[in-house]
Amino acid sequence: MTGIIASRAGLTFNDFLVHLAPLAAVLVVVLLVPCRVMFRKSFAYDDDRAAEIMALEEREAIRDPRLMVQGLIVLALVVAGFVLHPVLHYEPSIVALLGAGLLVAVSEVETNDVLAEVEWPTLAFFAGLFIMIGGLIDTGVVSEVSRWLANLIGGNSLGGSLTLLGGSAVLSGVVDNIPYVATMAPITSDLVRDMGGTGHHVLWWALALGADLGGNATAIGASANVVVLGIAERNRQPIPFWQFTKYGLTVTAVTVTISLAYVWLRYFALA
Fold first, then answer.
1. Closest among 211, 210, 201, 202 to 161, alpha carbons compared
2. What is the pTM assigned to this prediction?
3. C-alpha to C-alpha distances, 48 to 42, 44, 55, 60, 97, nearest whole angstrom
């Protein structure tokens, strides 16, 4: 999702760190309180479960130390590639794919085993959505929405930013945030251009925050949610849609509210 925004706005991995890392730190601390309340029953102490955990040998979880070291080295190289984007000029997607290819090449893992772990249904799902989005762009639907939003927002950066953040949070809970951002990126680009802004314009950060945090609201709001629910199902720990939504809406409401305040403070009140 952030890769789409970075590509459209000309932003780098480092830009996201500078603009969003302070907010992320605040959100992690603040979320400790509602999580402690929502999952209070899970924090109850159980002697038997505690004894089982203490009896575990953590080294037994590492079945292939050599592969672990190789994976950590490749991961470090991939992160370095993200950070060095202004120098290397490689897109994050290319860096990630190169890292995956390098790990397959240097490890002894069979390619078939790796491909078996790929979430092919999820990839096919997103491929179909992106094809539909491309059709909306080519037929002019996106440009019409862009003009409508431009007339609505006008030159009001503050109102436009807060509206885009809040609206993106709501819509990303219903539509997966990746295709949503793919649809909104060209619209946001037009709005930023009309306001005479650059890639670091506040509208891009409003879109990123709203879509990212809004995706936490429901099980279908983000691809990560879909993957986690699939893993839980395979491990016989299914998470019902409405149970996820009950907790997700609470988390989304808290984080989006804080993000609205953050955008106002950083880009307007203290600018």
1. 202
2. 0.76
3. 14, 12, 11, 21, 44
Tell me the CA distances in angstroms from 267 to 104, 193, 210, 263, 270, one per residue in order.
43, 18, 16, 6, 7
**In this predicted structure, what is the pLDDT of residue 1?**
65
Q: How far apart are CA 270 and CA 201, in angstroms?
A: 15
Tell me the residue length of the chain: 271
Q: What are phi and psi of 221, to 5 degrees?
A: -75, -20
> Buried b / exposed e across 200-227, counting CB within 10 Å, b at 16+?
ebbbbbbbbbbbbbbbbbbbbbbbebbe
DSSP string, the chain: -HHHHHHHHT--HHHHHHHHHHHHHHHHHHHHHHHHHHTGGGG---HHHHHHHHT--GGGG-S-HHHHHHHHHHHHHHHHHHHTHHHH---HHHHHHHHHHHHHHHS---HHHHHHTS-HHHHHHHHHHHHHHHHHHHTTHHHHHHHHHHHHHTT-HHHHHHHHHHHHHHHHTTS-HHHHHHHHHHHHHHHHHHTT--TT-HHHHHHHHHHHHHTTSSTTSSHHHHHHHHHHHHTT----HHHHHHHHHHHHHHHHHHHHHHHHIIIII--
Task: Give Cα separations from 114 to 71, 72, 109, 110 (angstroms).
Answer: 13, 17, 7, 7
Per-residue pLDDT reduced to its tens digit, 133-178: 678 778 877 667 666 766 777 677 888 889 889 888 888 887 777 7
